[in-house]
Structure prediction request, 469 residues.
Amino acid sequence: MDKYLDERVKKLIDLLIYGSTHIPMTPKTFDRGIHPAYHKELTFSLATEKAPLPKRVVIPLGQHVGAPCRPVVKKGDIVEAGQLIGEAVSFVSAPVHASIGGKVKEVAPHPHPGGGRMMAVVIDGDGTDREWSGGADADLDSMDPDQLRKRIREAGIVGMGGAAFPTAVKLSPPQGKVVDTVILNGCECEPYLSADHRLMLEEPEKVLSGLKLIMRATGAKDGCVALEDNKLDALEALRKAAEAMAPEVRFATLKTKYPQGAEKILIYTVLGRKVPLGKLPFDAGVVVNNVGTAVAIYEALGHGKPLIERVLTVSGNGVATPKNLKVRIGTSFAEVLALCGGITEAEGLEREVLNGGPMMGVAQTSLDVPVVKGTSGITVLEAREIKPAEFGPCIRCARCVETCPMGLMPYRIADMGRLSLTSRFKGWDGVSCIECGCCAFICPPKRPLVQWIRVGKIKLREAEQEASA
Prediction:
């Protein structure tokens, strides 16, 4: 009787605090990290809107980690939505497809939201589209893991949380590596962004179907959806869907903290496993995928639809009307922002446009850059909020050390990167930095620690290439 009463009391407390009896009273978390202002309230309650077909798209042949694609179309060709226009030429790569029907205007270098210029296929649309109905792959149950991965690769699917690693490669454990758990990452800890939140809330069945397909492709027996406790409505939607279609899937509710969604941190928080230094999640028996990636996998395998569109968030104090939008790949930032009322103007205030969120996003020099597979959001902020101020010398306060989720010494490895001390940079484990930006965010003198660490990684890579040449 006492045990029964204790359970009733626990459920009552959960109901009062969380509005649900299914949420654990003590969400899991990790050491260190930060609590930036999240500003999710701008878009988290806004239903996803489908953007109209763009009149022109610029589709880069490199939208992923690894080798760029080789174009298989030329100027003047007529293409239809979903048609292959760039083929993968190496194992670590992913093909690209036309996102609209129309005529190829050119195949030439264009500005890329990741920086620099990239060869791209430009298509002038003719207003045609196509529908992908269910039943395209009715024999899914008969497919073995190799066949599933082949179809995922052919669909051009990459990690949609921002890293854009080719998913077929991620789901191919090396010989001797056994994956027992798949974690679906629904944390979306980057401020302002809410696209993943809306996907989980609006299409929970697709999210769970994608997770089950990933489990089959990797041979994993355990599937888990992990999300922070500021998304309890999404958790409830997923739980209800799981009762009917995926009772084997479990859920992990995590405390809201940045950068909870980082792969290695997520694995440790959920499973208590550490990915060995210099190794991959395979080595801990785990595969982590973003919820958007799971939806793309379901649509590719269940409907024959390649990755030609994605949900993204347009937000920030410089946007007239923040929104969650489903947008075709290749649509220009300018066109997407126009759908949100454009960039607001204020006298004396300069705006900065980011590909992604404010912690890890890349500032843009032009609005002519296209949405790519890894564009999780477009954030527009007052430039004074994110532009580096004049920085001072390190005051040895160790706040960057206290907040680094990887347990590194950012002030030290940043200086080694800045000074091109590559052997010392490597010795102090600079390559393990996940570039989350916690150190730069918390640094009182405003030192550009992440940028210097990135320089260190580049210099180290160059030195190792020279040594092996």
Observations:
- Residues 1-7, 17-24 have pLDDT under 50 and may be disordered.
- The first helix runs from residue 2 to 18.
- The radius of gyration is 22 Å.
- The CA atoms of residues 116 and 182 lie 35 Å apart.
